[in-house]
Amino acid sequence: MDEIRVGIYGVGHRGIHWLRILDRMAGYRITAIGDMFPQLHERALGELSDSRGVAVHSNYEEMLADRNVDAIALCVRCEEQGAMAAMALEAGKHVNSEVPASHRMEDCWRIVAAQERTGLVYLLGEQVRHSGFITAWRDLVRSGRLGHVGYVEGEYMSRKDTRRYWRDFETAEFVDLKDLHRVPWAQKTWTHDMPPIHYLCHDLSAMLSILDDRVIRVTAMSTQPDGYAHDEIVRPDIQVALLHTEKDTIMRMACGWTIGRSRETRGHRYQMIASHGTLETGPTLDELPMMYLADSQMHEVSRVEWRIERDDAPEEAAALADIPSTVAGQRSTGYSEPSMDYFVHAEFRDAILHGKQPEFDVYQAMDTAAPAILAADSIAQGSKPIDVPDFHPSESRPAGQMPEGY
Amino acid sequence: MSEIRIGLFGLGHRGMHWLRLLQRIPGYRITAIGDMFPALHERGVANLTDPRGVATYARYEDMLADPNVDAVALTVRCKEQGAMAAQALEAGKHVNAEVPAAHTMEDCWRIVVAQERSGLVYQLGEQSRYAGFFQAWKDLVQQGRLGRIVYFEGEYVSYKGILRYHQDWDTGQFVYPYDLDKHPNAKPTWIHEMDPIHYLVHELSPVLMVLDDRVTQVTAMGTRRQSYAHPELKRADIQVALMKTEKDTILRMMQGGTQMLAPARDHHHYQVLGTEGSIESGRSYGDRHYLWIADNQMHGPARVDWKYERTDAPAEAVDSGHRGTDYYVHIAFRDAVLDGEPLEFDVYKAMDTAAPSILAADSIDSGSEPIDVPDFRPNGSRQAGQMPAAATA
What is the ipTM of this complex? Predict the structure, then answer.
């Protein structure tokens, strides 16, 4: 195989962004697009450099049955997205999936078992782990310069607009809260129903990649189910988890999108406190990250010009820089940058075409999903601590099998 | 009563500071000093402007029996410090106690009950709540300018070296771990044995004041109880608690004292997030705070020059310690004892700072099980002056 015939399912904002990238990257050929909302198909086709011969599927099962599709780029946001990834593996397709990997433990296991049985490539398309500053932090921590990392903080907290909580199923357009009275038939989206803490994927992926670690236990708390910020949005304003890792690091992870924070305040913030130093992102977008190494003749914290962008991005990544960051006037990339997304799609491509083992394998992917799902379960059980399973094969679960109880 | 005859027990670093301060504030007369280490008495006496007539005690019970002592300034740091405060109340003495209030739940209840029975003044001498920036934060929060407060974090993460973890029982002096062989009578101190999370008092006191709230549930996690930074210390490097308050705010509280941090990193860091605004203290000493209010035409966070120091501090407060905030502790206690002024920081609020910390350590012991935090105020199931059923069982 010298190119991956990819089918993109889910052509919302992130789907269009992926489509633009895959349309430009060597090794990919888009052979199918699809969305449960047929109204979105035309826009997607219009984005393709050559739409001839590209199949269009509203029905996901039909895309999975399409023999011209080797791999699925799964860009949906719904409670079933984990099950959909597993279905694709079970149908013999490689899978590159947008985050989060899954919203149910059963789906996590189903993805793992399907990947093990098929040997196909499953990649969670989480991009923050590929950013420049995370790459630098990973080098520092793994080389032991900070000593033992005792505490890690990660969060996705912001004051997002109120646009994505309802959708008009007739037009497939999102309906902003302020317009809801004009579209009373609009239905709540999964963003509305999803526990905020489910969306720890970026923070767990990045931090666990630095620590080379996994979470073994989680407990969490939430504000009331009805948001305080907006009477109409029945979603907690904030959920916070404590997580304990195998290597004895305590993590505090938080998620909330109706928080009174300025747009100039960083949405994703990270901090590491270690036995011999600290690392921290600046609180605001214009502040540089901070570093202190106790054994490096540093009298105080240094400000380091680390960025999301990497300084070692290949030319192929730089060529993606002109990809528009908006879809229909709305930002499509969020925290992401094309140069950072490049590494996701390059890793997936190289795994399929060249048999290169993905650095971010299916087990590590589930290590980002399961703690988040179980954090929500902990909240539902009054903050009970919950053990997080190890998804690797073991004596009690041979590769390819579901564990007992599923 | 025109002056408080005060006995100060505990002549360590904080005790010496209190000793000097109490001699400067009108309304106090030191009539006794004491410490379980007699070797420390001499420096206590040497710091008195007039040592005549000042009794000296090695035994706490002897000080409590002294009729010339109206109030005890309790500046010890030991597991029993809560019980010692209760003992003083039970002996008919007012109490101004250094932090934390207690290290066992039973002692929390004992203090509450003794205070209720005696009607004496019990104050926890926590000073951060008097800091200038907390007064400003409190105004903003309680006026509703930040909307509903959904999250508040506080921490005391510092690096103070390794001196205070062992003490020579002959001299009362602290001993470095690498000098232990030269001090056969050196023993681990309470700081060594105490779970770091017990010391959340400077976080919970001001945070709960700003919120006008109390903690109802706590869960916590910690690293192993042997430092990675200094393996010779049998102490967790860091412990972290999540707490839920009665008003539905989530608190993240954290304590650690052995990891090697930048010298100028502020030991304390606080952040409050509301639905309509947020405030965060600077990371390093001297850094300005971040303030953002959604409905105030602010395009980005403002950097506000709030400090621990208060802009309305009287001259005598300025160099009273902890950037001028120690003064307010002793004024509040004095005015309560001499003039019957009600304490803003009463015994119930004091225990609201101690109990969640104690229970956070219990949660760590139980594998992070969530634990409910009792309300110490009298209610239908506990009459004032009575121990609760669970505490006496």
Answer: 0.96
